[in-house]
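re: the backbone from monday

yeah here it is again, tokenized this time
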């Protein structure tokens, strides 16, 4: 696919406007996608490298891909709400994608964006698949649980670094093993939480899974 156009826009969010970027898709796109960024109190925005590479991995299939800044991040209005109000931000982004494209949606999130977004996306009627990058288990004194995915039968793809400092590989594997099929976990050898120096491997893993699981290639 040729380089996609990028559109800057603001979404109507529950705490005010949400700054967003849309990478355009092909006219015959079969899916749309949403990518959520890591923790805003630790510098996370929609311009994060992992978020950018996830967007490219999804956009390469000709899908329109939306990224946005959670409340209080970048030019988004409102204040950080420790993951509670941010779920409503995700709902607003999914609603915008649904209204704009009327296509099935693939959700992807990195770190905080995964833990928050998965809660919303796993039960959203338009979402058909979940991609969780750097899924956090314990970070900066915060504990993350994924029991809400216990009944989620959507295709689920987890990609983390083998040396992720916020998710011990054994603990993450136990979480994934507890979930219903279909599911897959890829641990990128030598990678940390931010996939430093390993972003191409992370991106390739997403592209392979999308081709196999979603497009059936």
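seq for it, each position gets an aa:
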């Amino acid at each position: 696919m040729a380089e996609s156009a990028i559109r800057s826009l603001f979404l109507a969010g529950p705490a005010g406007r949400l700054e967003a970027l849309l990478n355009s898709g092909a006219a015959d796109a079969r899916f749309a996608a949403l990518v959520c960024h890591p923790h805003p109190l630790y510098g996370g925005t929609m311009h994060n490298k992992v978020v950018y590479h996830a967007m490219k991995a999804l956009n390469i299939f000709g899908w329109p891909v939306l990224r946005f800044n959670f409340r209080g991040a970048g030019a988004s209005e409102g204040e950080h709400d420790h993951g509670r109000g941010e779920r409503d931000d995700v709902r607003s982004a999914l609603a915008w994608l649904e209204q704009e494209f009327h296509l099935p949606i693939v959700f992807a999130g990195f770190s905080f964006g995964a833990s928050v977004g998965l809660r919303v996306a796993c039960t959203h009627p338009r979402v058909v698949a979940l991609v969780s990058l750097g899924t956090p288990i314990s970070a900066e004194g915060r504990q993350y649980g994924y029991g809400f995915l216990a009944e989620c039968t959507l295709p689920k793809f987890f990609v983390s670094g083998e040396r992720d400092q916020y998710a011990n590989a054994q603990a993450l594997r136990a979480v994934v093993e507890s979930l219903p099929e279909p599911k897959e976990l890829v641990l990128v050898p030598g990678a940390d939480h931010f996939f430093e120096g390993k972003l191409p491997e992370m991106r390739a893993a997403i592209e392979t899974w999308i081709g196999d699981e979603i497009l059936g290639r």
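Strands lie at 6-13, 16-23, 32-36, 65-68, 105-110, 127-133, 138-139, 142-143, 156-161, 183-188. The chain has a mean pLDDT of 97.
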